[in-house]
Amino acid sequence: MPERDRLSELAVRVADREAIDWALERARPSSGDELRLVEELASIDRLVAAIRAAEAAPDDALTGLTLGPYRLEAAVDRGGMGDVYRAFDESRDIAVAVKVLHPAIAARPDERRRFLREARIARRVDHPSVAVALEVLEHDGQILIVMEWIDGEPLSALLARGPVPPDRAAALVRSIAEALAAVHRARIIHRDVKPGNVMLTPGGAIKLMDFGVALQTMTSEKMEESLDRLTREGRSVGTIRYMAPEQLRGEAVDERADLFALGIVAWEMFTGVHPFLRATSYAIAAATLDDPPGSASRWPREAGALKPVVLRLLEKDPARRTPSADALIVDLDRAGSRRRTLLDRLLRRRP
């Protein structure tokens, strides 16, 4: 393999966090320049490993502090934008979730302004299936988003146990579509629809989380540059799994990108498998761009009427995709009606 190709492959392996034998890689270069590049990649690999280790668990450094009226009781999650704490709102006498923006992001004026602006816009969304943003504030240099506290588990935990029963999967897809319709009416593109951002309440409802505060839409960077930036900054590239083709190509996106992501989530619920599952993030991105959904044989027969609806969500070309969340709800209801009619006919044929 030419040296440049080998170095390119090595860079991709670093980005995908694959284990690399650096002693072996250092022994291969045939020139000083090539060895220098290998050493730089090794340094990046160590840096990313350190960042990922730091992000593996939420930071408890602020636990016990009171920021404004909010007493931070426990760190519960860490994301690319900030740490989330369970807190007690002493002014309202209720439990809340407080997201504290990472200092490194808060220090960048553009990121800071974008975070505050979009978080404030997100407060306009009023829907029972959307997590309520109660307040956005700055306190002693810290930027906080205060949200309602939601008991339950993320949809990702449910999916980890296998395919979701068809009736429940259909109901969940419809509920997420209703939440997205409300978000889109507020002129917000979620941009990070994934199982980890859908909470399931003990009563069976859903809450769509983290809208308007996800990573900014990629409109000027190519996919390779975006992946490189995400890796350098220590942000998770996991959301690559739920990006629409137009996002991966670095094109402008609209609400149909959210619907493509919902299509992936729906496919996972009905089949138990990601439709473009591959070994690495780059391979997943390539499959999302070029390949049809996989594991079609796993689709449950009793939900056959819903398969064309989900396939329309997964159209590569946004112009061929379901145009809106409201249109998706109509499609789901029609498919559900056809499914019930077929089931009734089958039941009547039984002796």
What this model shows, in words?
With 351 residues, this protein is of the alpha+beta class. It is built from 13 helices and nine strands. Strands 1-2-3-4-6-5 form a six-stranded antiparallel beta sheet. The protein has a three-stranded antiparallel beta sheet with strand order 7-8-9. Helix 1 (3-15) runs parallel beside helix 3 (32-55) and helix 7 packs antiparallel against helix 10. The radius of gyration is 22 Å and the shape is globular. The termini are far apart.
Uncertain runs with pLDDT below 50, 5 residues or more? 212-238
**Separation of the first and last Cα atoms:** 68 Å
Give the helix/strand class. Answer: alpha+beta
Helix content: 40-55%
Oligomer state equals single chain
Q: Based on DSSP secondary structure assignment, what is the total number of beta strands?
A: 9
Mean of residue pLDDT values = 80
Order of helices and strands: HHHEEEEHHEEEHHEEHHHHHH
Topology:
Layout: H1 3-15, H2 22-26, H3 32-55, E1 66-67, E2 70-78, E3 82-89, E4 94-101, H4 103-106, H5 109-122, E5 133-139, E6 142-148, E7 153-154, H6 155-159, H7 166-185, E8 198-200, E9 206-208, H8 223-232, H9 245-248, H10 255-271, H11 281-290, H12 307-313, H13 325-349
Annotation keywords:
351 residues, globular, 6-stranded antiparallel sheet, alpha+beta, 13 helices, 9 strands
